[in-house]
Specification:
It is built from five helices and 76 strands. By secondary structure, it is mainly beta. The strands form seven sheets. The protein has a 39-stranded parallel β-sheet that branches. The protein has a 19-stranded parallel β-sheet, with no helix packed on it. Strands 68, 69, 70, 72, 73 and 76 form a six-stranded antiparallel β-sheet that branches. The radius of gyration is 41 Å and the shape is rod-shaped.
C-alpha cells in the first residue's frame, strides 16, 4: 500500500461513517524497520510506514490509535534519536519486535507512553542509556514484553495509576526485566504511582531462567506510592534487593512471589541484598511468598510502621523440606508490625530479628520443616533489640498462637542489646515441636537475656530442651579502648520468669534435656523466678552466680521431676545453686503458698558457695536430693569441722556459715513432735527457726536430712554468751498426716547473714525438762472486737530461772502492749520472750491485739520450759 492508497482509505472511511472519527482508533501498520520521521507531517499523509512516523501522526491527530507490527514481526528497529512520547491512547502490539539504539544514537530512552487506557504488548526494548519504557499513563496494560540491558530502569513508571503490568495467566511469565544497568538499573521502578498490579513477571532472569540480574533492585516502589500490588512474580538474581519499597509509600501488597530462587523454588538464585526491603513505609502486607537464597535478609523492614508479614516460607525450598538460606530470615524495626504464621528455617544467621516496639511475633515455625518433623536450623531463632517504651510480644498473651523455635544453631530467643525494655515472651514452644512428640534442641539457650535489659517477662513457655540453659540472664561488660575510662557493666534488672515448663515433658523425656541449668542468672538485679516447673538439666535447676548479683526472688517453683525413675528428667546438679550473690530469697516468710519444691536432684537441694550472703530460705519443701538439703560451702565439712555449733558463730564463709540447731531430740510421732537442742550464735540476738518433717536417714547419711513438710516457725533469743536452749513440742493435723512417712524433725535457722543448713542429731544430750503452768482465763474480747490476751505463766520447777516464749498463731495480730511483773521481757516480731527468775512466783505476761474472736487453744500454745546453762531458755 502506497501513500495514495492510505489517502483513499481515509476518504472512504470519512464518507461512510457519520460518527465523529476521533472516537475510533486508527491502525498504523508498520512495514519498515527504518527509523525515519514522516516526510511531511503537515500534509495529512502518514508516510513512511515507520514507528517514528506513526507516533508523530498519532500525536498530531490526537485520536486513539493502534500500532500493528505484524509485517516486521520479530525484527529490530534501531533508533538514532529518542522517539516522541505517545500522548494519545494507543494499543501497541509489537509482534515481537526489538527496539534498541543505533550506533552513536542520541536516544536516551526507548519508548515513552503518557496516555491513559493504553495497551503495550509483545515488544522487546533493550540497550538504551535511560529507561527502556517510560510510562506515565493510568488504567493501562503492559504484557508480554522484555526490558533488558538498559542503563536505567527497564520500565520507569511516573504518576501512573491503576495499570496492569503482566498477565494473570498463572504458570506463564508475562514480562522479563533483566540485565538493566547503572545507578538506576532497577527492573521496574515506580514513582508516585498508585493502585498498580504487577503479576507473573520475571525480574533478574532471562527466558530460560538463567540469572541476568538487574544492577539495582528487581522492583523499586518509592515516593509516596500507594496500594500497589506485586503478585505471582519471580524476582531473583538482582544485584540489590528483590523488591524495594521506600520513601513514604503505603499499603503495598507483596503476595505469592518467589524471591531469590529459581522458577520451581528448588534452588537459589540470590538477590545480592535483601529479598524484600521496606523502608519509610506503612501498612504494607507481605503474604504467601517463597523468599529464599538471598544474600542478606529475606525480609528487611526498617523505619516503617504497621507491616503484616504472614504465611511466608523464608529460607527453604517451596516444599519446606530443604534449606535454601537467606543471610537472615525476617528483620523488622520501628513499630506496629505483625509477623505471624511464617516458616522461617534454614537461614544462615537469625531467623527473626526485631528492633522496635508494639509488635507481635506469633505462630511462626523457626528452625523446622512445615510438619515439624525435620530440623532445618537457622543460625539462631529470634533476636530482639527492642529499644522504645512500647510493648513487644513474642508469642501470645491471650491464646496459644505459639512460635515453634527449635533446632537452631544458637539461642532460641535472644534479648540482647542495651536498654531493651517491655518485652513479653509468652506461650512459645522452644526446643521441641508443637505436639512434643520430638525434641529439637537449640544449640544455645532457650531464652537468653543480656545487657541492661529491664521489664522483661518470660512466661508460660514450654522450653523443652536446649544445649545450654533453658533461660539465661547475663550482664555485659563494655571495655573501652581508652584505658582511663572504667568498664561499663550493663546488668539486666526487673526480669520476670514465670509459669514456664523448663525441661522435656515426660513423654519425650528420653530424647533430650538442657545442657546447662534450667534458669541461669549471672550478674543481674531484681530477678523474679516464679511458678516454673524445671526438670532435665545437666547442671542446676536454678543457678544464681556472681558477687554483683542482687535481689533474686524465687517463689512457687517446682524443681525436679515428680518421679525420680525418669532419669532424663532429673536435675544433674543442685536444685538451686547460689554462688557469690547477695540477697536471694527462696520462698516467702509470710506465705507457705509461695513455697518452692526441690526434689530428686543429684546435687544439693540448695547449695550456697563462694561467699554468697543473705540467702534466705523460707517455708520450702525438699525431697531426696542426693547430696543433701542446704549446704553452705561444703555440707560435710560444715558438720565434721563443727561449723554448725561453734561459739559465737564467728567462722566465715557463705551465709557466714550460719549455725544450725544441735538437736538431741527431733522426732514426730502420730500428731505430735518433740524437739530439744541448743543453738549457738551471736549474743542477745533473735533467730528465726523454721521446722519441717523429714525422712529418716541412717546415721552415715544423716547430713542428707532435708525438710520436706513445713510445720511452723518460732523465734528464740540468745543470752549474753550467745547460747539458747530449745525444748518444745506441739501437735497438729499436719503432723498427724505426715509423721509416719516423715518421722524426723529438722530445722533451718535464719539470722541476718542468711539461712543455715538443716539440723541433724549431731551430739545427743539430755536436758532437764522444767514444767511451767499457763493460765489464760482472763482473756476476753471487748465491745470493739479487740482481743486482749492475758497469759499468766508460772515456773513450777526448782530454783532455776527459765525463759519462755509466747506467740500467737495468727501472723496478722498487731501487738499493742505487754508487761511483766518481774523479770525481763522483749518483743521479737510476733513472739514475746520472757525470763521468769523465781520459783513459785506467778509471773504474768499480757498484751492486747487487733483480731477476730478466736478460741483460747488456738491462740496460745501449751508451753514447756527447760533450764539453760545461761539461765535463758525460750520455749514454744
Amino acid at each position: 500500500m502506497n501513500k495514495y492508497h492510505y489517502i483513499l482509505l481515509l476518504s472512504i472511511i470519512s464518507f461512510f461513517i457519520t460518527i465523529p472519527v476521533e472516537i475510533f482508533s486508527v491502525e498504523y501498520i508498520i512495514t519498515s524497520t527504518l527509523d525515519l520521521p514522516d516526510e511531511d507531517l503537515e500534509d495529512g499523509v502518514w508516510y513512511p510506514y515507520t514507528l517514528r512516523s506513526a507516533i508523530e501522526n498519532m500525536n498530531k491527530n490526537g485520536v486513539t490509535a493502534k500500532i500493528n507490527c505484524a509485517e516486521i514481526e520479530y525484527q529490530t528497529i534501531q533508533l538514532h534519536s529518542g522517539l516522541p512520547a505517545i500522548n494519545v491512547t494507543v494499543e501497541f502490539d509489537g509482534k515481537g519486535i526489538v527496539l534498541e539504539p543505533a550506533a552513536n544514537s542520541t536516544a536516551n530512552g526507548g519508548l515513552a507512553i503518557t496516555s491513559n487506557n493504553s495497551i503495550l504488548k509483545n515488544i522487546k526494548i533493550q540497550g538504551f542509556k535511560g529507561s527502556g519504557l517510560f510510562w506515565r499513563g493510568s488504567d493501562g496494560v503492559i504484557t508480554n514484553c522484555v526490558f533488558r540491558y538498559n542503563e536505567g530502569p527497564g520500565m520507569l513508571m511516573n504518576y501512573a495509576n491503576r495499570n496492569k503490568i503482566g498477565d494473570d495467566a498463572l504458570g506463564y511469565y508475562s514480562i522479563l526485566f533483566y540485565g538493566n544497568k547503572g545507578t538506576a538499573g532497577d527492573g521496574l521502578q515506580m514513582l508516585w504511582c498508585n493502585d498498580n498490579i504487577v503479576y507473573n513477571c520475571w525480574f533478574g532472569l532471562d527466558s530460560l531462567g538463567n540469572p541476568v540480574g538487574n544492577e539495582r533492585s528487581g522492583i523499586k516502589i518509592i515516593d509516596e506510592s500507594l496500594r500497589n500490588k506485586i503478585q505471582n512474580n519471580l524476582i531473583s538474581g538482582n544485584e540489590w534487593h528483590g523488591i524495594q519499597v521506600s520513601n513514604k509509600t503505603s499499603f503495598t501488597l507483596i503476595a505469592n512471589n518467589r524471591i531469590g530462587t529459581d522458577y520451581l523454588g528448588n534452588s537459589a538464585i540470590p538477590n545480592m541484598m535483601h529479598g524484600i526491603y521496606i523502608e519509610q513505609s506503612s501498612a504494607d502486607t507481605i503474604v504467601n511468598n517463597l523468599i529464599s537464597g538471598n544474600e542478606w535478609a529475606g525480609i528487611q523492614i526498617g523505619l516503617s510502621t504497621g507491616a503484616v508479614v504472614e504465611n511466608n516460607r523464608i529460607g527453604t525450598d517451596r516444599f519446606v523440606k530443604e534449606a535454601i538460606p537467606n543471610g537472615s530470615g525476617i528483620s523488622v524495626a520501628n513499630q506496629y508490625h505483625i509477623v505471624r504464621n511464617n516458616i522461617v528455617s534454614g537461614n544462615k544467621y537469625t531467623g527473626i530479628s526485631v528492633a522496635g516496639t508494639d509488635m507481635v511475633i506469633q505462630s511462626n515455625i523457626i528452625g523446622l520443616d512445615a510438619e515439624q518433623k525435620k530440623s532445618i536450623p537457622n543460625g539462631s531463632g529470634i533476636y530482639c533489640s527492642n529499644y522504645t517504651d512500647g510493648i513487644l510480644v513474642i508469642g501470645d498473651t491471650i491464646g496459644y498462637n505459639s512460635n515453634i523455635i527449635a533446632s537452631n544453631l544458637g539461642d532460641g530467643i535472644s534479648i540482647s542489646a542495651s536498654k531493651i525494655k517491655n518485652v513479653i515472651v509468652a506461650r512459645n514452644i522452644i526446643g521441641t515441636n508443637k505436639d512434643t512428640s520430638l525434641v529439637f534442641p537449640n544449640k544455645g539457650a532457650g531464652v537468653f537475656i543480656k545487657y541492661d535489659c529491664s521489664d522483661i517477662t518470660v512466661k508460660e513457655n514450654l522450653i523443652a530442651a536446649n544445649d545450654y540453659n533453658g533461660v539465661r540472664i547475663e550482664r555485659n561488660v563494655v571495655i573501652f579502648l581508652d584505658t582511663t575510662r572504667p568498664k561499663l557493666y550493663q546488668k539486666p534488672f526487673n526480669i520476670y520468669i514465670k509459669k514456664n515448663r523448663i525441661g522435656c515433658p515426660e513423654k519425650i523425656a528420653t530424647m533430650g534435656k538442657h545442657g546447662g541449668s534450667g534458669v541461669s542468672i549471672f550478674n543481674a538485679d531484681w530477678i523474679y523466678v516464679e511458678d516454673n516447673y524445671i526438670t532435665g538439666t545437666d547442671s542446676c535447676g536454678i543457678d544464681i552466680a556472681n558477687d554483683s548479683t542482687r535481689y533474686i526472688r524465687l517463689k512457687r517453683n517446682k524443681i525436679g521431676p515428680t518421679n525420680k525413675e525418669i532419669k532424663e528428667m532429673l536435675i544433674s546438679g543442685d536444685g538451686i545453686r547460689v554462688s557469690g550473690a547477695k540477697d536471694v530469697v527462696i520462698g516467702d516468710f509470710f506465705s507457705p503458698l509461695d513455697s518452692n519444691v526441690i526434689r530428686y536432684c543429684k546435687g544439693y537441694g540448695l547449695s550456697v558457695v563462694d561467699s554468697a550472703m543473705l540467702v534466705n530460705y523460707y517455708i520450702n519443701s525438699m525431697l531426696e536430693n542426693e547430696r543433701g538439703g542446704i549446704s553452705l560451702d561444703d555440707l560435710n565439712l560444715y558438720f565434721t569441722n563443727g561449723h554448725f555449733d561453734d561459739k559465737f558463730d564467728e567462722d566465715t564463709g557463705s551465709n557466714g556459715l550460719q549455725n544450725t540447731v544441735n538437736t538431741s531430740t527431733a522426732e514426730a510421732k502420730n500428731a505430735s513432735i518433740a524437739i530439744s537442742g541448743k543453738l549457738e550464735g551471736v549474743p542477745n540476738t533473735v533467730y528465726k527457726i523454721f521446722t519441717y518433717l523429714s525422712k529418716k536417714y541412717d546415721d552415715s547419711l544423716k547430713i542428707k536430712t532435708q525438710g520436706t513438710i513445713y510445720l511452723d516457725m518460732f523465734e528464740v533469743k540468745t543470752n549474753d554468751k550467745g547460747s539458747v536452749q530449745i525444748d518444745t513440742s506441739w501437735s497438729s493435723g499436719v503432723i498427724n498426716q505426715f509423721s509416719k512417712d516423715y518421722p524426723v524433725v529438722t530445722m533451718s535457722v535464719l539470722e541476718i547473714e542468711g539461712s543455715s543448713p538443716f539440723s541433724i542429731i549431731q551430739n545427743p544430750q539430755q536436758y532437764l525438762d522444767i514444767e511451767v503452768k499457763i493460765d489464760t482465763s482472763e482473756t476476753y474480747i471487748d465491745k470493739d472486737g479487740i482481743a486482749k490476751v492475758v497469759a499468766k505463766i508460772t515456773n513450777l520447777g526448782n530454783e532455776i530461772a527459765t525463759t519462755v516464749s509466747v506467740r500467737d498463731t495468727l501472723r496478722n495480730i498487731e501487738i499493742k502492749e505487754m508487761t511483766i511483773s518481774k523479770g525481763v521481757i522483749v518483743l521479737a516480731d510476733s513472739t514475746i520472750i520472757a525470763t521468769i527468775p523465781q520459783l513459785g512466783k506467778g509471773e504474768s505476761v499480757f498484751y492486747s491485739a487487733y483480731g477476730k474472736y478466736i478460741k483460747e487453744g488456738e491462740y496460745v500454745r501449751s508451753i514447756k520450759a527447760i533450764p539453760s546453762e545461761n539461765d535463758i531458755n525460750p520455749m514454744n
